[in-house]
Design a protein that fits this description.
Blueprint lengths: L4 H14 L3 E5 L5 H7 L8 E6 L3 H8 L3 H7 L4 H13 L5 E7 L14 E8 L5 E6 L5 H21 L2
Parallel strand pairs: 1-2, 1-3
Antiparallel strand pairs: 3-4, 4-5
Length: 163
């Protein structure tokens, strides 16, 4: 089990209390959020599915992210995070979806999109999806991915509190 058990349990408990299933749509975290959630026994009561959409094609095919969005704004963008979260909600039985898209490094960063940049998408049924930008310190790929997964779960807990 991860070191983040309290946070994970808080998210799972929030889903249970609100009687909603959860889905993830992960790019830069590569399934880490889903792994953290399913490390907890009994998580199957509230976890519907996880989409690992690392390629642009998978974002389009599995989540309905538009080619136009990817061409105009790129995979690491507010618009893509919003469409990923909304697509995960739409293509699942979930009532909340968490999405991540970012630059985990060590290569791939630019001045506009540095290593450590992550966009989070949070979609809750009957609410407009929300996107939040964070730039994590470049302490290596593993650090960025883990911090992004933790942060997504924190945003999920906050969204459930507002449900």
């Amino acid at each position: 089990m991860s070191d983040d058990t309290d946070l994970v349990v808080e998210f799972l408990k929030g889903c249970w209390e609100r009687r909603v299933m959860a889905a993830t749509a992960e790019s830069c975290t590569g399934g880490l959020i889903a792994t953290m959630l399913t490390d907890v026994p009994g998580a199957s009561a509230v976890i519907d599915r996880g989409f690992v959409t690392y390629s642009n094609a998978s974002k389009v095919e599995m989540l309905g992210v538009t080619v136009e969005t990817l061409e105009q704004f790129g995979a690491v963008s507010q618009q893509t995070a919003l469409e990923m979260a909304a697509g995960a909600l739409e293509n699942s039985k979930a009532g909340i979806a968490l999405a991540t898209t970012g630059v985990a490094g060590p290569e791939g960063g630019t001045d506009d999109k540095p290593v450590g940049l992550v966009w989070f998408g949070i979609a809750v049924e009957r609410r407009k999806p929300l996107a939040i930008k964070r730039v994590f310190e470049n302490n290596g790929r593993d650090f960025i991915r883990r911090e992004a997964a933790r942060t997504a779960l924190q945003y999920g807990v906050e969204a459930l509190r507002g449900a």
